[in-house]
Amino acid sequence: MGTLSTDVLVIGGGATGAGVAWDAALRGLDVVLVDRQDLAEGTSGRFHGLLHSGGRYAVKDPNAARECIGENRILRHVAADCIEDTGGLFVTTSWDDPAYADRFAQGCADTGVDCEEISVAEALRSEPRLNPSISRAFMVPDANIDVWKTVWAMSHGAQQRGARILPYHAAVRIHRDGDQVSGARVRDARTGEESDIHARITVNAAGAWAGQVADLAGIEGVRVLPGRGIMIAMNHRLVNTVINRCQLPTDGDIIVPIRTVSVIGTTDQHTDDPDDHTIDQNEVDQMLDDGEKLVPGFRGARALRVWTGVRPLFEDAKQSDTDTRDVTRAHALLDHAQRDDVRGFVTITGGKLTTFRLMAEETVNAVCRQLGETRPCVTSTTPLPGSESGEHYRLGERLARKEANLVDEQVICECELVPRSKLEEAMTRTSSTNLDDIRRQLRLGMGPCQGGFCIYRATGILHGLDGLTAAQADASLLEFLQERWKGVWPVLYGDQLRQARLDDWIFQGVLDVAHLPS
Amino acid sequence: MRSELHFDAVVIGGGTAGLTAGIRLAQDGARVCVLAKGHGSTHLAPATIDVLGYAPDLVTEPARALEELIAARPDHPYALIGSEVIADALTWFATTAADGPHPGYGYTGGLERNLLLPTALGALRPSALVPETMAAGERSQLHRVCIVGTPSLRDFHPSLCAANLAAAGIEARAVSLDLTLERADMSALGLARYFDDPKWRARFCAELSLALRAEEHIGLPAMLGLRDPHAVLTDLEHRLGRRVFEIPTLPPSVPGMRLYEILRAALRAAGGRLVLGAEVVSSARDGERLTAVSTRAAGRDLVYAAPMFVLASGGFASGGIELDSHWITHERVLGLPLRGLPDATQPPAPRFVATYLDEQPLARVGVAVDAQLRAECVENVIIAGATLPGAAPWREGSGEGIALASGYRAAQVVAGQANAKQEATTA
Predict the structure, then answer these.
(1) Best residue in A449, A482, A511, A513 to probe B by mutation, most B CBs within 10 Å?
(2) What is the percent of chain A with per-residue pLDDT over 70, rounded to a whole number?
(3) Chain B closest CA to A498's CA: distance in Å?
(4) Chain B closest CA to A482's CA: distance in Å?
(5) pLDDT over 90 for what percent of chain A?
(6) Are B381 and B374 in contact (CB under 8 A)?
(7) Block means of pLDDT (10 residues each) for chain A, length 518 residues?
């Protein structure tokens, strides 16, 4: 790759990092973004998909609630195509303190979160599977947001304005000369090749890994406390509205309908390692039990997949570090010129997905301040590529397109209705031989069969398009199989186990993947 | 309203094991009814009869490897069945297939030597008996091969198949024919119906001939007709002037549907009954004997009473055995006790392991049986097929072999018990 020079080097390609790249590119700055993995493969791609209304924080953290509702309104406009306007309900179940509901309504009123109490009958009419024993119900403007689509849209938008986006490039060294940071050395994870990127400002947007990146710069005391939570995707839209328990935030109190699934979340376990993806059996059981409380019969649905995400919680020395839920969810912007007298380096961490745009705005403001330039932020009024029409995503979009091309278009992934043309386009565009990268862009293999039918097809197409060797194609297939299995086996029961056995039949029986010549 | 029907034996499960048991009992003169919730594994599987492919290394001589397996694993279904019965079952099956509803279509092979056939991915998979339509793809005959597919069939990718065959040392190349069809998306089943039409075959061969080189065998996805595969194969080989073979691919399996037709026809010819869509929903016992099972059919429950039953409802894949969301494992039809479960004491042993291709601890779970394949606690229920414990069919390449041999053996046990009872009554 040689040596690159840029105004701004962003380390971290999650929602915040991509948001910084998009914001800075819109302000006319030259940007390079690197991530050790693919875009949105860390915390951003590992959450339940909720675009907060702010209701969840209305009582506990009014400032967070205000930020959320403000960003919710902006993103509905600028990222319209990435958002499905499901609406949200806060419901008081028999396990919740009935006195909380009035505090919740008052909290929403105080923080400007639109909230309307509806009758239980009305709530049950709109969500028939909801537990009929609920006593109160409040409508709020929760929604779901497709993070991968959002991050890719920002990345494409930034690229159109000259930004260079480099996934699979890990920062291995931060160049620092005295009190000046001047860029980083990065290693291409696929080739092992190292190269230098000179930058006027380096932005540490590594989220839960921000402490590790700050260490590379020799900056002390940036501690990010990873809070690990699990989420389980169930194979149906059990509900079509985001359902929250009306209580102080706790484990297993939210179900988010997103795309073809419903996601229940989440737990909160302290961990020392942001790469810790342990899934505890007790946490799985707890999620299933909590699901039953909101939607009776929850356990009868198929659990498709479980995954963990780590919240990047910036450490506040005044708080205990055992229950991470009590550590502030607010984001932390560290201008190291002010904090440490080190110029050319800014850290942004903490926060939540809903406020990524605001975090990016504040970060690029700090970047401009250090550069001594005045460039106003325009991300609150500039639609992302694909969102220009201002129309929200609708669940039926893929099906409508399929029906329009019923005879002419081949569908490769039936669960997620991924047509061959889209798959070939993504494979050509990204020139990635990693099917998991393709999955995050198209949702390939994310439905009930977890790739049983589409992995072979996609591997065959990839092999044909890219001129891969048989060994490369086989490796790609086996990696994807292993990657799928990772999130499948801890929640494998009932009909989903039957499905997994059918997949075994295909892979180990019909195709005999365990005995490929390579 | 409840109607009670009486049979000499009732078989639960319509896969290879259940149908084999039903046919053998009917051929023995018994009044038999096979109850099936739906189609069994036949429609999913490649339709080759894999007896023992890996142990754990590639098995070249299954007869010898079977003896070793039987000696090493007394809990394996093959150890309970015995090598003589396995051999008899295979011979019987080959005859049944040759006499089946597809004229001239039969199976070749045996237990002396495994046949290595290409998969759709280009791996070489070991089987004991294979349909004649696949025989020319056998490794020892395969020197130069052209793998042919079409973009219309998303379930078969000739270039990847050929590339892996080449990696295994076979001179292989791929041709993709752009067939003009009414849909962009065809299944192998849809294409098999085209291949049943001689005019369509003539056009297909004319187009393919242009792309061929000398002395190449032709590998096609398994789609060479449903009605008369022997005629389709003969016609293609005649028109193309070379050997042609089928490669199994994703479900639904065309050769699997032929296998099902072979077994169904044999059951009918022997006077047995097959009831599809008949899920057993309850059962009645008298002490340690099962007396009847009930199915829910359109509008009414039907009760099937018999002195002997064969349970061949399958394992986890078919839903015959279930792991529920509280992590409890059940045999779903009769609630029979299971064997091979991971230790559930605290802390519980893992049900699955994190590496996909490693052996999964739940793999060998099945209904606990005695040496006669009789279920523990219920003396007149004989277990066959994937319901049996002790095997890991995909890892071993043993699924169809166990289904066939245990179905065959189950019928012997049922007949033996019926005879013993008759003798006791006569005495």
Answers:
(1) A511
(2) 97
(3) 4
(4) 6
(5) 83
(6) yes
(7) 92 98 98 97 94 97 96 98 98 97 98 98 98 98 97 97 97 96 96 97 96 94 90 96 96 94 92 88 94 96 95 62 51 92 95 96 97 96 97 92 86 93 90 87 90 95 89 95 95 95 95 93
Name the nearest CA neighbour of A94 among A266, A290, A293, A250: A293
Return the axis-axis angle of helices A435-442 and A454-466, rounded to nearest 10°. 110
Instruction: Say whether B157 and A510 touch across the interface (CB within 8 A).
Output: no
Q: How far is CA B214 from CA A502, B117, B123, B201, B246, in A?
A: 40, 22, 24, 21, 19
- B252 cis-preceded (ω within 30 degrees of 0): yes
Give A464→chain B minimum CA distance, Å: 6
How many A/B residue pairs have CB atoms within 8 Å? 160
> What integer pLDDT is reported at residue A325 of this predicted model?
46
For A482, nearest residue in chain B (alpha carbons) = B356
ipTM of the complex in this document: 0.96
pLDDT digits (tens, 9 = 90+) for A397-432: 888 988 888 888 999 999 999 999 999 999 988 877
pLDDT of B179 reads 86
Report the distance separating Cα B415 and Cα B9, nearest Å.
Answer: 9
How far apart, in whole angstroms, are the C-alpha atoms of residue B361 and residue B352? Answer: 6
Contact list, A503 vs chain B (CB under 8 Å): none
pLDDT reported for residue A316: 43
Closest partner CB to A460 (pick from B119, B157, B322):
B157
Cβ separation of B163 and A470 shorter than 8 Å? yes
Instruction: Specify the pLDDT at position A85.
Output: 98
Q: What is the pLDDT of residue B427?
A: 57
Chain B CB contacts of A496 under 8 Å are none
What does the alpha-carbon distance between residue B114 and residue B63 come to, in Å, rounded to a whole number? 9
CA dist., res. B384 & res. B401, Å (int): 11
SS3 content of chain B, % helix, strand, coil (to 5): 35, 25, 40
B123 vs A504, A506, A511: nearest CB: A511
> What token pair was written down for B87?
């051999």
Residue type, B407: G
Instruction: State how far residue B324 is from chain A, nearest Cα, in angstroms.
Output: 5
CB of A495 within 8 Å of any CB in chain B? yes
Those residues with Cβ within 8 angstroms of residue A416's Cβ, 6 or more apart along the chain or in another chain: A259, A260, A398, A442, A443, A444, A445, A446, A447
User: Which of A410, A473, A506 lies nearest to residue B154, judging by beta carbons?
Assistant: A410
Nearest Cα neighbor of A416 from A393, A392, A434, A441 is A441
Q: Does A482 touch chain B if contact means CB atoms closer than 8 Å? A: yes
| Cα–Cα distances in angstroms (integers) from residue B194 to residues A468, B30, B217, B229, B238, in the given order | 32, 40, 22, 12, 18
The pLDDT value given to residue B313: 97
What is the sign, positive or negative, of the torsion defined by CA atoms of A401, A402, A406, A410? Answer: positive
Contact A497 B323 (CB under 8 A): yes
Report the pLDDT value the prediction gives residue B3, as an integer from 0 to 100: 76
> The pTM is what?
0.94
Nearest to A456 among B121, B163, B248 (CB): B121
Within chain B, which residues score under 50 in pLDDT?
Answer: none
Whether residue B121 and residue A469 make contact (CB cut-off 8 A), yes or no, is no
Element of type H or E holding A483 = helix A470-488
Helix axes B229-240, B198-209, angle to 10 degrees: 30
Contact A518 B164 (CB under 8 A): yes
Q: How far is CA B12 from the centre of its chain?
A: 16
Give the pairing type, strands A88-92 and A136-140: antiparallel
Nearest to B161 by CA among B250, B279, B47: B250
pLDDT of amino acid A1? 64
